[in-house]
């Protein structure tokens, strides 16, 4: 595992963007899984900045989201799809045909999960899974105790995650009780993982991950032993 500690929000975002840009330089038609949350916002901004300068080309890539709220339409501003359009995809010039975002309100949510898996498989799997980390150790919406195999599926959300996500919204949005998420098996199958960790609430989850002992109570530890993990973490979280 490669570990990079960065100081401050700008350095964190720039380092993450440089890492993603390196992947695109090696493989322009990269298939990428995209996270939602506060952590990747700076990465998206920095990546768009690099693209505007011509330092990276994102338009040959294929993009998938990691997860979505069940029951929330993409057009709803609270959806993860809307978040990704707002912060990244909408300004990227990436053709819509190269973007597949989960439909949380799909009439047949199981079929939607299978369609997501099939779309990723059609690209030969994920080249790069960009992941944030939940305070409880979750990756995407794989909560503590989640199985470590399998593809996209529907999951109940923990109260902790629902409360953390409600804080993103100033309005009275009720975070749904279920999500749809790429499974841990699918994430582990990604050729490369970029794990982004910032925020004081992540200290314990990061410490458990760095201890390197696989434990289903901490989903992120499913990545221990993956052949290509890059961790970019805020140095404020560095122990000792
Ligand atoms: P955050 O969420 O980036 O908003 O902290 C991370 C996550 O829960 O995966």
What's the quick description here?
The protein is α/β, with parallel strands linked by helices. It has helices at residues 9-26, 41-52, 80-87, 109-122, 159-166, 184-188, 203-211, and strands spanning 2-6, 31-34, 62-65, 67-69, 99-100, 128-131, 153-156, 178-181, 192-197, 229-234.
Report the count of strand segments. Answer: 10
Low-confidence stretches: none
Looking across the biggest beta sheet, what order are the strands in?
A: 1-10-9-6-2-3-5
Radius of gyration: 16 Å
How much helix, percentage-wise, in residues?
Answer: 25-40%
Can you list the ligands bound to this structure?
A: 2-phosphoglycolic acid
Instruction: Work out the helix count.
Output: 7
User: What is the mean pLDDT?
Assistant: 97
N-to-C span: 20 Å
Spatial shape: globular
Strand content: 15-25%
Largest sheet: 7 strands, parallel
Give the assembly state of these chains.
single chain
Q: Helix-strand pattern, N to C?
A: EHEHEEHEHEEHEHEHE
What does this structure look like?
With 240 residues, this protein is α/β, with parallel strands linked by helices. It has helices spanning 9-26, 41-52, 80-87, 109-122, 159-166, 184-188, 203-211, and strands spanning 2-6, 31-34, 62-65, 67-69, 99-100, 128-131, 153-156, 178-181, 192-197, 229-234. A 7-stranded parallel β-sheet has the order 1-10-9-6-2-3-5, sandwiched between helices. Strands 4-8-7 form a 3-stranded antiparallel β-sheet, with helices on one face. Helix 2 links the parallel strand 2 (31-34) and strand 3. The model has no long low-confidence stretch (mean pLDDT 97). It binds 2-phosphoglycolic acid (PGA). 2-phosphoglycolic acid is lined by residues 37-39, 132-134, 199. 2-phosphoglycolic acid (PGA) binds at residues 37-39, 132-134, 199.
């Amino acid at each position: 595992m490669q570990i990079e500690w960065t100081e401050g929000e700008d350095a964190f975002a720039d380092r993450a963007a440089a890492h993603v840009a390196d992947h695109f330089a090696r493989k322009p038609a990269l298939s990428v899984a995209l996270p939602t949350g506060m952590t990747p916002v700076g990465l998206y901004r920095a990546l768009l900045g690099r693209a505007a300068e011509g330092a990276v080309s994102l338009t040959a890539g294929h993009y998938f989201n990691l997860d979505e709220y069940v029951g929330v339409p993409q057009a709803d501003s609270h959806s993860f799809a809307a978040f990704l359009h707002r912060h990244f995809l909408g300004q990227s010039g990436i053709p819509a045909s190269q973007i597949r975002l989960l439909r949380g309100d799909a009439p047949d949510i199981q079929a939607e999960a299978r369609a997501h898996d099939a779309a990723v498989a059609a690209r030969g799997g994920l080249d790069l899974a960009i992941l944030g980390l939940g305070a409880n150790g979750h990756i995407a919406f794989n909560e503590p105790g989640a199985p470590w195999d399998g593809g996209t599926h529907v999951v109940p959300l923990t109260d902790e995650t629902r409360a953390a996500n409600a804080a993103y919204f100033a309005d009275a949005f009720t975070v749904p009780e279920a999500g749809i998420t790429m499974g841990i098996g699918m994430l582990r199958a990604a050729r490369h993982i970029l794990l982004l960790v910032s925020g004081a609430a992540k200290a314990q989850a990061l410490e458990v991950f760095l201890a390197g002992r696989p434990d289903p109570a901490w989903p992120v530890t499913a990545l221990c032993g993956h052949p290509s993990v890059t961790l970019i973490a805020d140095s404020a979280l560095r122990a000792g």
